[in-house]
Amino acid sequence: MPGPARNARAPVKITDVAAAAGVAPMTVSRVINTPDRVSAETAARVREAIERLGYVPNLIAGGLSSRRSRMVAAIVPTIAHPMFAGLVQTFTDALRQAGYQVMLSLSGYEEPEQPGLIRALLGRRPDALLLTGADHDAGARQMLTEAHIPIVEIWDVSKDPIDMLVGFDHTQVGAAVAAFFRAKGHTRFATVSANDPRALERTEGFQDAALRGGGQIIASRVTAAPSTIMAGRSAMAEILPMVTDRTALFCSSDLLAFGALTEARLHGLRVPDQLAVCGFGNFELSGAAEPPFTTVHVEGAETGRMAANFLLRRLAGEPARDTDRVQVPFRILERGST
Amino acid sequence: MPGPARNARAPVKITDVAAAAGVAPMTVSRVINTPDRVSAETAARVREAIERLGYVPNLIAGGLSSRRSRMVAAIVPTIAHPMFAGLVQTFTDALRQAGYQVMLSLSGYEEPEQPGLIRALLGRRPDALLLTGADHDAGARQMLTEAHIPIVEIWDVSKDPIDMLVGFDHTQVGAAVAAFFRAKGHTRFATVSANDPRALERTEGFQDAALRGGGQIIASRVTAAPSTIMAGRSAMAEILPMVTDRTALFCSSDLLAFGALTEARLHGLRVPDQLAVCGFGNFELSGAAEPPFTTVHVEGAETGRMAANFLLRRLAGEPARDTDRVQVPFRILERGST
DNA sequence: GTGAAAGCGCTAACAG
DNA sequence: CTGTTAGCGCTTTCAC
Predict the structure, then answer these.
(1) What is the pLDDT of residues B40-61, one digit of tens each?
(2) Which of A178, B33, B214, B238 is a Cys-bridge partner for A210, taking CB atoms 3.0 to 4.6 Å apart?
(3) Angstrom distance (rounded) from CA A178 to CA B273
(4) Which of A56, A87, A286 is the best substitution to test chain B (most B C-beta atoms within 10 A)?
(5) What residues of chain A lie within 8 A of the CB of B59, using their CB?
């Protein structure tokens, strides 16, 4: 009994389902996309056919026709950084719940391969875009604006955002940490920073504020991005000879801070008497290590959620508004290291 | 001077470029995809027009027509885990270099929302797929095989892989750690494991081997996935009273191990004399903490690279072969905690 | 080396 | 509530 050619290599398409259910292709489309506009019986019959044939709608074709890809592209430097990992998680979750798929791209810290990357992403016609704070060159910026899609930039408060923004001022973070140290009577400061634009901004903000307050910078080290514990240890080892008196150290990441603390203790430095240390990021490590150390907390997860909501609001048709540019608050969590 | 309508909201398409360059659309397509088949002069003229108009080819349309999306979908449980973060990085890099974009999906550890997720991904017609070890139900498995695309499963050696495989046997890892401890004369064992399938497999492998070797399990704790340092500390705090004699602890992750060690030292336990600890993952923390602790190293980055190469080979037209299923080696890195 | 015709599989828009 | 028509923007295929 031959029966109908099962397992035909040709994938089943909407016309196959329509034929099987005895309806027009458009009706199948409606059952999938706007079930309310189809009678219950018809819908049931169509669904049965979809199930039986194992139909998986071709979203590529649908997207071309409807001019909506139901896809959002996101560019972040890395996901090795807990902050970005968390941010991407919440961003992705929020969008998936709304029926959007996220196309993630990792740009790295090194070469700003933005132009090619942005081009490749835009070619897939995402309905919206998330960018991690970066100074886009003129060409990239033009492509971005001509795409006519909602764009949210995160992580940094750009002077001149393309569209929406969820970030904070890294210089201010550094300044706040300097003020925190000064309030504790510190006058000798040191920094260890990863060599990435935002980390350097925080470090400069710290140094400027420290100097303006009459303090002195006794040492500063810049390590390769992304940050590692080992880099923190090495930097601390180099700085050690300069720590001849009570010193306050700001690290651009909790990983560096943990490394610095580890190395400092190994050499018998008393924390926080001789060396006070503040990190950045509030990674789990900063609170779970023994003893816990002081750090700057920034709402990474919340940033992802807000960015997603901004995009979704626009995708739902709402117009741009003033409140589309927000500062994410940060705060210093004081723990045993200061 | 009005000039041609600049900034027209309609995005520029291939016909616009063709008209501007005085050629047929097909020629523009060739300049982009198969430049060798176009004369140098024509190509130059077309490229100038592309540049001037800011043309970004619509890959959705191209994909529909060519039936190749130049996109690879990947499903991993999380990227908060350094192993997966690294794996995703190398996988993504390798594919991007070959001109493929990776569409990443995070499935989480909790509810296996596989069916819906797989359906959504397959709807975008990826050219290939990466799956993180999971037992797919019959429906998912059918969709997967009927997609007729290369699939690589990672992280776990499935009994019955769908197609290609790059993983290792988690039970064997646990057994190897037990053997390692036994060789050091241990007879009392304990475990702390995250509640995820693979972690539990490693833990069971450890316990079985330990018992078979005549040892005894004095305590075992299961914590929520994903692992955290704090969970390791809490679990250790619970286990402490049972550590009345020389004990060997296996943690399903370095995060748990670090937490356990931190807590144990805080309570004055001597490591490794009273308590020996082995983690899993070789996160930077295990080697950079002071003192460093013993762990199991698995080549995460290499797994991502191999998975990518497997897929690329198939995408290049090569047939399936025996060597498409490989075991990733693992090894125990002995450090101060054992 | 270049062009013309014919779709890819779906949905918007309009009828009925 | 359901169907018909006409594309979406590209590439395949076949001519020239």
Answers:
(1) 999 999 999 999 999 999 999 9
(2) A178
(3) 44
(4) A56
(5) 123-125
